[in-house]
Amino acid sequence: MVASRFKHIVWFRNDLRIYDNPALFRAAEEQEGVLAVYFICHEMLENHVTASVRIDFIRRHLLQLNNDLAELNIPLVVISTDKTKEIIPQLKKLIDKYQVEGLFLNAEYPIDEFNRDKQVADELRKQEIVVKRSHDRVIIPPGMIRNGKGEPYKVFTAFKKNWLQQARALALEPLKKPKTQPPHGATVITDAEINKQFKTLEQRDLSKLWPAGEKEAAKRLKAFIKNHIHDYDTGRDFPDLDGTSQLSPYLAIGSISPRQCIAAALHANRGELDSGNAGVTTWIGELIWRDFYQHVVVDFPDVCKYKAMQKHTEAFPWRYDKSLFNAWCDGETGIPIVDAAMLQLKDTGWMHNRLRMVVAMFLTKNLQIDWRMGERYFMTQLIDGDFAANNGGWQWSASTGTDAAPYFRIFNPVSQSQRFDADGAFIRRYLPALAKVPAKVIHSPPPTPGYSLPIVDLSLSRKETIALFGALKS
DNA sequence: TGCGTTTTTGG
DNA sequence: CAAAAACGC
Ligand SMILES: Cc1cc2nc3c(=O)[nH]c(=O)nc-3n(C[C@H](O)[C@H](O)[C@H](O)COP(=O)(O)OP(=O)(O)OC[C@H]3O[C@@H](n4cnc5c(N)ncnc54)[C@H](O)[C@@H]3O)c2cc1C
To answer: Looking at the domain covering A8-136, what would its CATH class be?
Structure first.
């Protein structure tokens, strides 16, 4: 039996992968023993209304991660806690038990996670423990993209210009495989023990739709680059096609890094970031949007406290009508594209980006319901739920965000449906009651058995919303 | 990655 | 008069 001593702990969170994981990579460099830990913190999961499909996705990822880490001689410890404050004593216990000297983690930006990590770091540093924080969730770390006055950008196009300039100077290469550690004597956690840490197991089995693990994520990235990225600029708008990567669950949970994504995209575009194939550059543009919203959370932490980015929009008279809201959640608005999209979300834990914009605009601009209610409901359902991207998407749709859709630029869900689901194939996928309705009228169907009439007048509510926004003084 | 309405254009 | 352009929100 080899003595169990680990020089470093890697605390895994939304970075459940071995490759291109800077915290793990750095901890492993010295090859003096690494212990991996994952906390299932029920207080945090509940406060953040984490979707049950997401929790199950975490569980399935931990099973994979455990195997992958074992090959590097890194044991994984999975600890379930009721309260966030239990994490510090739990870490201290591990530190004492294994004579640990350093804690390595990848940064998380939303305020609760940020504060938690700061408290942990402050506390451990008092005990002479080295705490090293890396940035893996973004391609360019927060704080790096600044205008001439040293301030963060509020407009995406300006952010993007600066981002591209800096990106050109970076290698954008994923890290090499982390070093294998010396053999250790600690017992390795079993699948059953990992499963046992999860209070209730998700009933729905989404393991076919969303298989867990970084191998699966890498496979999907490869397939997307091979089959779809070159037509992404045109294909991404049609919800019935597989025109997008569907990598968001993997990026959110961190079984793939954005740097691995951009490296693969560059490889398919002769290394060009913003020239060459339009599909590739458009996709890179989405990865930059992703960085932008992560940076917004760091630079404007008020967004984590239910605040609108544009202060004057706080005065908008949002409605809180329970029955209209429930109809939206349950896909019973009588607007086929909205209903089909909401059922896709419920069924699969994912929704096409075009449809996220359509349903978010419908909730905020036609039903005039507070965007925060939609934001919250999305988090309860999404397998790819990410605070920054979700808040950014909602504030964009509600016209409360920085560089949001202007308040008067309101989508008409029926015209969106006609443009992007012209033959109604996506609608029919989720609304069997409309199976026989012809394409010409399916977007706004005549009274049909088993399908309800619209719960709101699109034209009237649009006019009203524009007037209400117009009356706000900015 | 907006829509609805009005005005202009070319015949 | 239909289509395109322009305009305001
Ligand atoms: C109201 C609303 C809520 C959203 N909530 C989330 C969320 O909780 N989590 C989430 O990851 N995305 C969210 N998005 C952004 C976007 O809809 C999804 O990232 C995208 O649909 C995921 O599909 P994909 O992986 O096939 O994307 P692709 O089109 O293949 O794009 C590649 C990656 O880029 C990132 N990305 C793409 N578009 C955006 C965007 N607009 N903003 C930020 N990142 C983007 C994602 O990580 C995505 O996986 C939201 C958008 C809206 C309008």
So the answer is: alpha beta
CA atoms of A304 and A146, how far apart (whole Å): 21
Ligand 1 closest atom vs CA A245: 30
**What are the sequence ranges of the domains in chain A?**
8-136, 137-175+215-299, 311-473
Cα(first)–Cα(last) distance of chain A, in Å? 70
Residue A153: what are its φ and ψ, rounded to 5°? Answer: -80, 145
Of A230, A233, A234, A290, which is best to mutate to test ligand 1, by the most ligand atoms within 8 angstroms of its C-beta? A290
Work out the number of other CB atoms within 10 angstroms of the CB of residue A275: 10
Our measurement of CA A332 to C1' C3, in angstroms, reads 38
Instruction: Give the closest residue (by CA) to ligand 1 atom 5.
Output: A390
Region A311-473: CATH code = 1.10.579.10
Cβ neighbours, 10 Å, residue A17: 25
User: Mean pLDDT over residues A216-240, rounded?
Assistant: 98
pTM, two decimals, is 0.98
> How many other CB atoms are found less than 10 A from the CB of residue A1?
6
* Architecture of the domain whose range is A137-175+215-299: Alpha Horseshoe (1.25)
Check whether residue A459 has its CB closer than 7 Å to nucleic acid strand C.
no
The confidence band for A2, taking pLDDT boundaries of 50, 70 and 90, is low
pLDDT in tens, A308-367: 999 999 999 999 999 999 999 999 999 999 999 999 999 999 999 999 999 999 999 999
| Catalytic residue chosen out of the listed positions A283, A318, A328, A350 | A318
Q: Which residues does A116 contact at the CB level (< 8 Å), separation at least 6?
A: A44, A84, A87
Residue pair A160/A134 in contact by the 8 Å Cβ criterion: no
